[in-house]
């Protein structure tokens, strides 16, 4: 299986503009996972990106293993959280012994898994990596979120030595979103262009919960970010599962 490395070309822009700690996403982590993890417990940060969640967890005294498919994202992650361990691997290929007291994946990272069979495989691998009663918390962009935010609008930013324009579109028939970023960097006296297109898949709550249960998790609960967890964002769902 080819490692998912699509963020390599985007890593510098991502780290500068989009990697700030997502404070609004930390409250569910604290209330649903960390409260049941031992003070020096070991946490898996799946699709860890540039390591800002890992840095927060390390600061709280936890041991952290971050996994990401992008070597460039991990380069920034090692700077953000030098005391954490980082592993270059696709989420669909992780292979850990039962090691972790909890697992977390944030900011819709698993929407990049484009079919339900592969998503279930990710869940099976996370299940095998958890110690008994270990909890797995992740959030996904729902179709409501794609329709609200990936609606064909674009945004951008420009500085003296770099610029970018980005935006998303959503295909409701195939339930596929595409996020496009065009970047320009001033190097060696000239401007160089780079383009990235990221794809994501919208899953229903029922599909995700059934896949979690099929992967062996004892319980699978879904929470609406705004209604259930007071996270002020439309179209984001959190899923919590526990290894029996």
Overview of this protein structure:
This protein is of the alpha/beta class. 30% of the residues lie in helices and 36% in strands. Strand 6 and strand 7 form a beta hairpin. Helix 5 packs across helix 7. The protein is globular.
Q: What is the general shape?
A: globular
Instruction: State the distance separating the first and last CA atoms.
Output: 29 Å
Continuous helix count:
8
Beta-strand percentage range:
35-45%
Average pLDDT for all residues: 95
- The protein's oligomeric status is single chain
Number of strands: 11
Please write the string of helix (H) and strand (E) elements: HHEHEHEEHEHEEEEHEHE
Low-confidence stretches: none
Keywords:
244 residues; 30% helix; alpha/beta; seven-stranded mixed sheet; 11 strands
Topology:
Blueprint: H1 11-18, H2 23-32, E1 42-46, H3 52-59, E2 63-68, H4 71-80, E3 85-88, E4 100-105, H5 116-129, E5 130-141, H6 143-149, E6 154-158, E7 162-171, E8 176-187, E9 190-201, H7 205-214, E10 217-224, H8 225-229, E11 236-243
Parallel strand pairs: 1-2, 1-4, 2-3, 4-5
Antiparallel strand pairs: 5-11, 6-7, 7-8, 8-9, 10-11
Summarize it:
This protein is an alpha/beta fold and 244 residues long. 30% of the residues lie in helices and 36% in strands. A hairpin with a 4-residue loop joins β7 and β8 (176-187).
């Amino acid at each position: 299986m080819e490692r998912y490395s699509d963020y390599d070309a985007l890593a510098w822009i991502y780290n500068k503009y989009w990697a700030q700690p997502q404070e609004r996403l930390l409250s569910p982590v604290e209330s649903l996972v960390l409260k049941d993890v031992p003070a020096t417990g070991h946490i898996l940060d799946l699709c860890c990106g540039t390591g800002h969640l890992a840095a927060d967890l390390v600061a709280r005294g936890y041991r952290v293993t971050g996994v990401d498919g992008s070597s460039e994202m991990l380069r920034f992650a090692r700077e953000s959280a030098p005391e954490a361990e980082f592993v270059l691997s696709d989420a669909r290929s992780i292979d850990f012994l039962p090691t972790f007291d909890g697992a977390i994946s944030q900011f819709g990272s698993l929407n990049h898994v484009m079919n339900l069979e592969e998503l279930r495989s990710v869940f099976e691998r996370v299940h095998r990596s958890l110690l008994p009663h270990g909890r797995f918390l992740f959030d996904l962009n729902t179709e409501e979120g794609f329709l609200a935010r990936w609606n064909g609008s674009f945004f951008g930013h420009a500085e003296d030595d770099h610029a970018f324009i980005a935006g998303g579109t959503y295909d409701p028939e195939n339930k596929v979103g595409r996020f496009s970023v065009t970047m320009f960097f001033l190097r060696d006296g000239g401007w160089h262009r780079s383009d990235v297109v990221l794809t994501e898949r919208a899953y229903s709550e029922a599909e995700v919960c059934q896949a979690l249960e099929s992967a062996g998790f004892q319980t699978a609960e879904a929470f609406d970010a705004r209604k259930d967890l007071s996270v002020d964002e439309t179209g984001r769902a959190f899923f919590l599962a526990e290894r029996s």
